[in-house]
Design a protein that fits this description.
With about 450 residues, the chain is mostly helical. The chain folds into two domains: about 150 residues, no CATH class; about 200 residues, no CATH class. About 70% of the residues lie in helices and about 0% in strands.
């Protein structure tokens, strides 16, 4: 089940909200927990047992850590959570690499691949669980009062599958008692509609364009087509992921929660450092607080700082997926951040103004090539085509074949929204014009959903 489906919008969500408003305040967490488990089971089936295990074991560990503050117990909890994540997300990748290495030696394995189904959203709820354990160990939060309350937090369906990464400290004051009102419902519906419009009306359109171009063989990939493809993907991933975050934040509002913002116009950034303060902010903050700072941050000298940046972004790339393309994407950003820090420390130079914005966007798009490609070979071939370094091409269709009038209009609209301060508009109070705008968006989305096939959110696979 996904937010951008008619069933969720017109069946699951209205029924859930009706039950939530009818439920007495002290039982609302139970209602949310049950609805969240149903939502998750609808998409993951029996793998909901992994989520249930995570809820039970991390609730128990959180209580023990708040009582005893044991490093051994904390280490056990972190290793357990990462072990589960590692098995489901990375075991297949490492086994495939091992099988390939064995094959190069002239040997063979019984199975060259492992059939492991990845539980949806496991990267997100695992990171939330780890932050919960560490914060209990440090005494910065108090453990959940009941298994139901903690389960509601960890399995909360709006942000369970693709974020934002919500720490327990973000919502601990509203876990047991929070207002639910028509005003909050109205604000939530508006924010949800904005996200839904981003996803269906912009991201999916740009996604189909990017998919067409990235699927072309190298012999047909001209420089202009390659640039068009990566521009389309750059817009797709932003509107897809920020759209999901908007929907999650809006759904949280409907339930009385204030989930943290996850995006702040990242394509307006004037450096890669600024980009990571604006893009997927809850993940950036998580790595900063639970990895970069514990490694020493910038407190142990210049070269240790550079090492810490590379380490953080290596794990950031690996967190996104078990593939060399994600690792290279992470290390690429780590290199850019290190160079920016080096230029700032040594010569007091940093990108600024329009030139800085062009620089940041250019290198972000180069990074997206690795993120989008299926292999390193495709990544390098695509970059060669972008910069005119590839072999001669046979252009079967001109750029106008792919960039039809409707796609061109959507692309222009997406660029304008991406670089204008629309994120600020989405976070302000709701009024009648915004409600009318939300209704128009919902109507357009409904029409679009009636004729289009299912297109999942990009971050569902992480």
């Amino acid at each position: 089940m996904v937010f951008s489906s008619n069933f969720f919008i017109f069946a699951f969500l209205p029924l859930f909200l009706l039950l939530l408003f009818l439920t007495p305040a002290r039982y609302r967490n139970t209602t949310i927990l049950i609805a969240s488990l149903i939502f998750y089971a609808a998409g993951s089936g029996q793998l909901v047992s992994i989520l249930l295990f995570s809820i039970v074991i991390n609730h128990f560990l959180g209580i023990q850590l708040s009582r005893y503050s044991s490093k051994i117990l904390l280490s056990f909890g972190i290793i357990l959570n990462l072990g589960i994540l590692g098995y489901f997300k990375y075991a297949g990748f490492f086994w495939q690499e091992f099988s390939a290495a064995i094959a190069r030696l002239g040997l063979s394995t019984e199975n060259s691949s492992l059939d492991i189904v990845l539980p949806i959203g496991i990267s997100f709820f695992t990171f939330q669980a780890i932050s919960y354990l560490i914060d209990n160990y440090n005494g910065t939060i108090k453990p959940a009062k009941s298994l139901t309350s903690f389960g509601m937090y960890l399995a909360n369906f709006p942000q369970l599958i693709a974020g934002p990464i919500v720490r327990y400290s973000d919502i601990q004051d509203s876990i047991e008692k929070r207002p639910i009102s028509v005003d909050l419902l109205t604000v939530g519906i508006y924010r949800f509609s904005i996200g839904l419009g981003k996803k269906i009306l912009i991201a999916d359109s740009m996604g189909s364009l990017a998919d067409q171009i990235f699927s072309l063989p190298q012999s047909e990939l001209t420089s202009s087509l390659a640039w068009l493809g990566i521009i389309a993907y750059t817009l797709q991933i932003y509107f897809d992921f920020s759209g999901y975050s908007d929907m999650a934040i809006g759904l949280g509002k409907m339930m009385g929660f204030n989930f943290p913002e996850n995006f702040n116009q990242p394509y307006r950034s004037k450096s890669i450092t600024e980009f990571w303060r604006r893009w997927h902010m809850t993940l950036s903050n998580w790595f900063r607080d639970y990895l970069y700072i514990p490694l020493g941050g910038n407190r142990k000298g210049r070269y240790r700082t550079y090492f810490n940046l590379f380490a953080v972004f290596f794990f950031c790339g690996l967190w996104h997926g078990a593939a060399y393309t994600f690792i290279v994407w992470g290390l690429f950003h780590g290199l850019l951040l290190t160079l920016e820090r080096l230029f700032l420390n040594k010569w007091n130079l940093k990108p600024t103004g329009l030139l800085g914005q062009v620089y940041a966007l250019l290198f972000v798009m180069i990074g997206w090539v690795f993120f989008r490609s299926d292999s390193m070979t495709q990544s390098l071939s695509y970059l060669e085509a972008m910069f005119g370094l590839g072999q001669g091409v046979n252009e079967f269709f001109s750029i106008q074949y792919y960039l039809t009038n409707d796609k061109l209009l959507t692309l222009i609209l997406a660029v304008v929204i991406a670089v204008a301060p629309f994120e600020r508009i989405s976070s302000t109070k709701t009024n009648n014009p915004k409600i009318y705008f939300a209704l128009v968006v919902l109507a357009l989305v409904t029409i679009e959903l009636a004729g289009n096939v299912f297109n999942p959110f990009i971050y569902f696979r992480f």
